[in-house]
């Protein structure tokens, strides 16, 4: 962001960039999204592969996976959501402070996947609002990375105006 | 858990546990999970503590129950090969292999030699890949963050090989009833050869980091120990049982896929503690490389699937010329294979223990019942006895050294 | 070893001397042994429910079956007896227990399957927990999935499904609860009838 030349004596270039608040906030938010550790099943292994050396999420500021939802921005639902786990995930989501986003990783999280039966929630969007769906069984690490970068673009483009109404989630911090 | 009596730990049926006496007049109940970094998946551990000492641990499972066994009953046998690897997702080839071997036993079909050799190579690579995850995650749970990055580097190479065979990194589903899905690609043998040259040096690197590391030994020696009698009573199999001194390996005891013709050792340890399990698994990685090398040397060109057209689809070229081939193709892709009524249990030595598939057929194209004897489900039951009287940090060590996969615990 | 491997035909492991185990069981159980089969595949005994615990104790103490691999069940609805409880046992050679490699001549593990027919109306059978402590979770799973009760089990409650769940999923009369797949022609109907979280 700062000019590459050495500080000049002339006053015309004091080393400041002008922008709008929304752009600055969007830039900051998208560059340091902290995922919450929420690996459920097989997709969690591919999520681990996205973190390790070959694909390396930390290039995009996302290496720090917080165990506590209260310190994280992004919930990557990696794996199949069973009926017994559904209230737990809703509670985890409610414990995350705003702004927060959800990536539904894999087929099971997006639509129930191969398992169309009594035991699984057919898509986590029955329980959580999802921002990006990443298909695959499991999605390749590159596919997850593509989904994450797509989310980064959306975060960068988010408007700040009206945040009070938008982020007032019903039943949010009561969990 | 509404009816759990919190003040009285449940008795371990039929066993005496010789642990230091802990005063349990007011145990504190800590709930670990189901969302927790160290629980290897969605596992809930209800832990009763007396200060820093564990009084008892009750695992609460079912948070990943997928109803796979019921889903098997509504799919054909070939569709079932897709469901099986997703149970124990860290050893997908072994799930695939056990299921297909059971179906082949019901069908009574012979598998060509090339297919059997390929199955052995893939199974041993799968074992190495699974133990690499064990290594990385176990170290990460104990606070050592580097081994995971090194271990996953080799795992990426193995997953590239899997992708070369079946198209998917984790679930290639390359093993089908009768043989393989298609022939091994021409570059496969060379790639496996190159990997098998690299792996022993990589294993040496992991050992340099951990095996004689005083911190590692402090955290794992003598921790979460189980002796042979208790392990057998609890049905424990796999590296956990071998670390307790029992040399039971399904590949040697009840061989499948020609394992009796390979030259390999079964590493065991004596103390049954977490360090012993680590040593056993590292030894198994080396033996897996040895077996895969032998299988690779025996690989020769030949058919990759049985010629029985009631089991294996005919090659595409034949469909243009033979009416019978078209009929077989049609029946196989609509109704699927139809084994005669009967039942079969096949156990394979998965990286976690004995993985068994019990398949019951009623003569139709869909199985009547498929049950998976999952090693993690059984091994997890032994966790309570292993960590009573230990510190809370040892619970993490104990769980990581058991190496459970919640997908196969809950199915 | 220069021999080429045998083409796989299922597990090529030995199952003998199964006839010794089957003979011993026949002598013990008499008429309560409903059927026995030495192969192909695993040797199988079909036993009436009242003698199961006694047979298990006999297998562990007299025949050396130290390992209970699994306890599961099969539902043959609408045929009667509706359920078959299936237990798999493994006997390890003594050398293995001392950490020695088994001798290459004889089998180092013997396998056995025991089946118990149970009526559909009120399926109750004795728990094996006193003989094989590992049976604890297996029996809880069979109860959870099939509704078969185990007398003498210390803590028989659901293990995989939520506590308040009604029904036993692996029974044949329990539906799969398959959700209709949404295509473009039925998309509105399917998505209109399932919940969707907005915030």
The most extensive interface between chains reads:
B-C, 80 and 66 residues
Contiguous uncertain segments of 5+ residues of chain C? 1-16
- What is the percent of helical residues of chain B? 40-55%
**What percentage of residues of chain C falls in helices of 4 or more residues?**
10-25%
Taking pLDDT < 50 over at least 5 consecutive residues as the criterion, the unreliable ranges of chain B are none
User: What sequence of helices (H) and strands (E) makes up the elements of chain C?
Assistant: HEEHEEHEEHEH
Strand runs of chain B, count:
8
Question: Biggest sheet of chain B: strands side by side, in what order?
Answer: 1-2-3
Q: How much strand of chain B?
A: 5-15%
> What's the gyration radius of chain B in Å?
22 Å
Mean residue pLDDT of chain C: 82
The number of helical runs of chain C is 5
Q: Could you say which overall geometry of chain C the principal axes of the C-alpha atoms support? A: elongated
In sequence order, what are the helices and strands of chain B, one letter per element? Answer: EEEHHHHHEEHHHHHHHHEEEHHHH
Mean pLDDT of chain B: 89
Determine the structural class of chain C based on helices, strands and strand pairing. Answer: alpha/beta
The N- to C-terminal Cα distance of chain B equals 20 Å
Q: Give a quick account of the main beta sheet of chain C: strands, pairing sense, barrel closure.
A: 5 strands, mixed
Assembly status: heterotrimer
Q: State the distance separating the first and last CA atoms of chain C.
A: 65 Å
Give the count of helical stretches of chain B: 17
């Amino acid at each position: 962001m700062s000019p590459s030349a050495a500080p000049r004596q002339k006053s015309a270039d004091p080393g400041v960039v002008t922008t709008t608040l929304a752009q600055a906030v969007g830039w900051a938010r998208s560059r340091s999204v902290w995922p919450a550790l929420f690996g459920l099943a097989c997709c969690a292994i591919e999520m681990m592969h996205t973190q390790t050396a070959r694909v390396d999420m930390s290039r995009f500021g996302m290496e720090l996976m917080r165990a506590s939802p209260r310190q994280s921005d992004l919930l990557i639902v990696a794996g199949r959501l069973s009926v017994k786990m559904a209230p737990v995930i809703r509670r985890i989501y409610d414990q995350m402070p705003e702004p927060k986003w959800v990536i539904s990783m894999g087929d099971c999280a997006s639509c129930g996947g191969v398992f169309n039966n009594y035991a699984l929630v057919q898509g986590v969007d029955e329980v959580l609002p999802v921002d990006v769906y990443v298909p695959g069984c499991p999605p390749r690490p590159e596919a997850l990375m593509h989904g994450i970068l797509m989310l980064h673009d959306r975060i960068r483009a988010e408007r700040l105006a009206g945040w009070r109404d938008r982020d007032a989630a019903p039943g949010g911090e009561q969990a | 858990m509404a009816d759990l009596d919190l003040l009285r730990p449940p008795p371990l049926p039929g066993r005496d546990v010789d642990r230091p006496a802990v005063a349990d007049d007011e145990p504190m109940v800590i709930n670990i999970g189901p969302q927790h970094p160290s629980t290897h998946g969605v596992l809930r551990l209800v832990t009763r503590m007396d200060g820093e000492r564990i009084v008892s641990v009750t695992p609460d499972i079912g948070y990943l129950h997928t109803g796979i066994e019921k889903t098997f009953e509504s799919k054909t046998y070939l569709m079932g090969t897709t469901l099986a690897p997703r149970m124990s997702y860290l050893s997908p080839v072994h799930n695939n292999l056990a299921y297909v071997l059971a179906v082949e036993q019901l069908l009574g079909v012979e598998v060509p030699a090339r297919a059997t050799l390929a199955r052995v190579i893939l199974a041993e690579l799968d074992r190495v890949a699974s133990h690499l995850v064990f290594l990385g995650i176990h170290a990460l749970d104990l606070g050592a963050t580097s081994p995971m990055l090194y271990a996953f580097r080799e795992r990426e190479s193995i997953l590239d090989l899997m992708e070369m065979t079946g198209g998917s990194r984790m679930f290639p589903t390359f093993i089908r009833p009768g043989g393989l899905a298609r022939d091994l690609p021409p570059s496969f043998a060379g790639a496996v050869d190159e990997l098998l040259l690299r792996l022993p040096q990589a294993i040496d690197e992991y050992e340099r980091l951990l095996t004689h590391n005083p911190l590692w030994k402090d955290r794992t020696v003598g921790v979460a120990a189980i002796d042979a009698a208790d392990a057998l009573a609890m049905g424990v199999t796999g590296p956990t049982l071998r670390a307790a001194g029992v040399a039971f390996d399904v590949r040697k005891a009840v061989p499948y896929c020609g394992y009796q013709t390979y030259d390999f050792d079964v590493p065991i340890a004596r103390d049954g503690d977490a360090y012993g399990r680590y040593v056993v698994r590292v030894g198994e990685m080396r033996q897996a490389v040895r077996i895969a090398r032998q299988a690779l040397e025996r690989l020769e060109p030949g058919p990759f699937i049985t010629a029985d057209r009631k089991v294996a689809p005919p090659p595409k070229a034949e469909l243009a010329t033979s009416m019978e081939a078209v009929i077989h193709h049609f029946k196989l892709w609509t109704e699927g294979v139809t084994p005669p009524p009967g039942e079969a249990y096949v156990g394979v030595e998965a990286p976690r223990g004995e993985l068994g598939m019990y398949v019951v057929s009623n003569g139709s194209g869909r199985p009547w019942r498929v049950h998976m004897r999952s090693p993690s489900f059984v091994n997890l039951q032994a966790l309570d006895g292993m960590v009573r009287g230990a510190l809370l940090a040892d619970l993490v060590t104990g769980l990581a050294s058991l190496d459970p996969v919640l997908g196969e615990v809950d199915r | 070893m220069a021999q080429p491997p045998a083409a796989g035909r299922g597990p090529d492991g030995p199952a003998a001397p199964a006839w010794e185990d089957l003979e011993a069981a026949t002598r013990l159980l008499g008429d309560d042994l409903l059927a026995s089969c030495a192969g192909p595949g695993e040797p199988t005994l079909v036993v009436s429910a009242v003698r199961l615990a006694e047979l298990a104790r006999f297998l562990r103490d007299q025949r050396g079956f130290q390992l209970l691999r699994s306890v599961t069940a099969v539902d043959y609805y609408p045929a009667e007896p509706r359920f078959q409880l299936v237990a798999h046992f493994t006997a390890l050679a003594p050398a293995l227990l001392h950490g020695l490699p088994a001798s290459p001549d004889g089998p180092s593990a013997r396998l056995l399957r025991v089946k118990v027919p149970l009526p559909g109306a009120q399926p109750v059978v004795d728990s094996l927990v006193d003989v094989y402590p590992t049976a604890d979770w297996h029996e809880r799973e069979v109860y959870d999935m099939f509704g078969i009760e185990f007398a003498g089990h210390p803590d028989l409650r659901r293990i995989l499904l939520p506590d308040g769940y009604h029904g036993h999923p692996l029974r044949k009369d329990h539906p799969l609860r398959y959700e209709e797949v949404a295509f473009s022609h039925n998309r509105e109907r399917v998505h209109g009838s399932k919940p969707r979280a907005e915030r």
